[in-house]
Amino acid sequence: MNRIKEVLEEKGIKQTWLAEKLGKSYNMVNSYVQNRRQPSLEDLYKIAEILNISPKELLVENE
Asked: Which of 2, 26, 34, 40 gives a 20 to 30 Å CA spacing to 57?
């Protein structure tokens, strides 16, 4: 599970903008946001860099 959706909402960023910056399709980014797919570690770090946050902030810990 990831927190990409929450972080985008907090920062007021659209999925289309993130998809463009990441070089991925909107559908791929949307599947990350909806937690249907998980980004690779490489993509997770890229997303964190683009959003100017720590990669840890994108992850949800399992309890």
From this structure: 26
